[in-house]
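Morning!

This is the sequence you dropped in the shared folder:
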Amino acid sequence: MSAGELFERHPANPILTVEDWPYPANAVFNPAAAIVDGTTVLLARVEDRRGISHLTVARSPDGVGDWSIDPTPLLAPNGAESEQWGFEDPRVVWIDELDRWAITCTAYGPAGPAVFLATTKDFTSVERRGIIRHPEDKNAALLPNRIQGRWVLFHRPTTQYGGGHGEIALSRSNDLVNWSAREMVLQPRDGAWWDSLRIGLGPPPMRTEHGWLLVYHGVKQTVSGDIYRVGLALLDLAEPTRVLRRLSSWVLAPTAPYERTGDIPNVVFPCGLLHDQARDELRLYYGAADTSICLASARVGDVLEALLAEAP
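The structure's back. Tokens below.
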């Protein structure tokens, strides 16, 4: 663990690389995470040797090693123009009302990135629900339950590459098909801040007694290129556009060699978060340098204590 960082890297990092894959690929990174019947399931973004991504399942008894990786993708382009350049950066959340896992990911096509929704019972097959937010939009995840009768989707409505400021917003829906206009949740901070260029949602927000725990990536532009770090915020349970706390400092930054060197250097990009209640531990699964999959952990109590110590 680097000085001042809340999350500690697992000594086995990176826990998955392309060398572990059962078929040829360029890189594996940015995984969603779930626990299914006691097994840790990662839904990994796999970039093939054309540069096009799909999503493949890896399973582990302890979430660290002894991985079993499916020989074929769970979700891959099927010929639709909106997904012809691949599926990227999944998030998953269990929805009691649907009795299924909801997968939100980025479908990439000529019109740009869009938010795609699919559902699954056990990550062996998938039901495609299609595009739910049209280009340009990405970094999306659902809350596990309705708020005041409506579903809530966090997303970044425009990618804003080229120096613009990307933000985290939310939209609401009665049916998971038609969505309201975006409402602001969190914006980049002006000036020299570590999250001043753009920000985007990490894993689906996690319910705690103090509010929704929101993990996000923040980007700072430097003369040597962009740097991706991980930050935290706490949102009101009943009205998630209300930000209760936002941590001033990052909690994980690209300092390890496997985070600083790769297809895109200086990147830690979280998409999966699991809560081990027995150990009071958060397990954060993230992509490192757009090349490999890594794990970092923190105590839930320490994370909430740090957030609650921030000024409102």
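Headline: The chain has one domain: 12-309.

More detail when I'm at my desk.
O.
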